[in-house]
Amino acid sequence: MPAPKKKSKQDPHAFRRQRLTRLRKAIRAVDCDAALLTNANDIRYITGFSGEDSYAVVSSRSVVVISDFRFEEDLGVVDGIANVHLRKGVIVDAVRTVVGDINPDALAVQSEHVTVGLRAKLAKAVGAKRLKPTTGLLNQLRLIKDDAEIRTIRKAVKVQQRALLETLETIKPGQSEAQVAALLEYNMKLGGASGTSFPSIVAASANSSKPHAVPGTTKIRANQPLLIDWGAKVDGYCSDMTRTFNLGRWSKRMREVYEVVLEAQLAAIKAVEPGVTTREVDSVARSIIADAGYGDRFGHGLGHGIGLDIHEGPSVAQRDETTLKPGMIVTIEPGVYLPGVGGVRIEDDILVTATGASNLCSLPKTLDWATR
Length: 372
Prior knowledge:
Blueprint: H1 14-29, E1 34-37, H2 40-47, E2 55-59, E3 63-67, E4 83-86, H3 91-102, E5 107-110, H4 116-126, E6 131-134, H5 139-143, H6 147-168, H7 177-190, E7 195-196, E8 201-204, E9 225-230, E10 232-234, E11 237-238, E12 241-246, H8 252-271, H9 278-291, E13 303-305, E14 312-316, E15 329-332, E16 335-338, E17 342-345, E18 348-352, E19 357-359, H10 367-370
Parallel strand pairs: 1-5, 3-4, 5-6
Antiparallel strand pairs: 1-2, 2-3, 7-10, 8-9, 9-12, 10-11, 13-14, 15-18, 16-17, 18-19
Helix pairs in contact: 3-4, 6-7, 8-9
């Protein structure tokens, strides 16, 4: 009887190696030999390491993560994809050492993530002529989510949805916005989230007309809108949803607003497909809201990309002309806000597929379901 074939070990960094190949191509495209990554989420994207106060230097032959003693054990995650330089002094001195070993002619630095003060220190450490400011070095790479990222964002969506359903069972008039927000965030963490994608928004009554309201002592009231915008973070990746409720009867005007916003959101989601621009998708929702007479009360973009950051490319707005491609994940979140009265926003996370789009969110959003 022949011996069973041994299963080949899968490379845990296979998807990161693909990202690294694309990054090296981007580095060459800006006429550099290496890049200094100072943005924590970019470092995590390439290496899997997420400790703070750490940098990474990427060249054609190596990746070196610069960190310190606090993360000595955590840095094991980069084994096989990067080397580690544990600094004992200030981080700029460690950069001097690592860059000196590589000796690149041109070192790309992330202008949007480097302060004026840090740039001056880097110039002194490695030579001003060697530094080459770049913008968006990894932005284009991170626009398209790979299978591992999509799976993780799906997990985050499941966590946040379950947490809201658990929280809804306990919501009643008389509770404060802050109480509901605290319970919602507790339920997300209890359900597997490492944290929230952003500080949860729970806005009751007229506060729901403020797109980024901060939960406070305002009490939830019957027959008044209650807007909840929340997101879970799982393995570093964010999800983002909004639902608007009413604990009782809707006023005639707020019922109309809800139906307009829902129509706009459904139409915009239907418009999402490869080859369509983000501006075109935004226009679909914006025209429906404008035709209903609320155009001046929809003052923000229709959505944004999500990933390791809660707000990343592409922007789904009138000012953005990004062409949608398979693998992009964007929020679709139209809203209408009436100061002193209330507001409605409905938001889902949408994955662009090869043939159209897939809604990663499954919570209902009909008017009947939003009436508690």
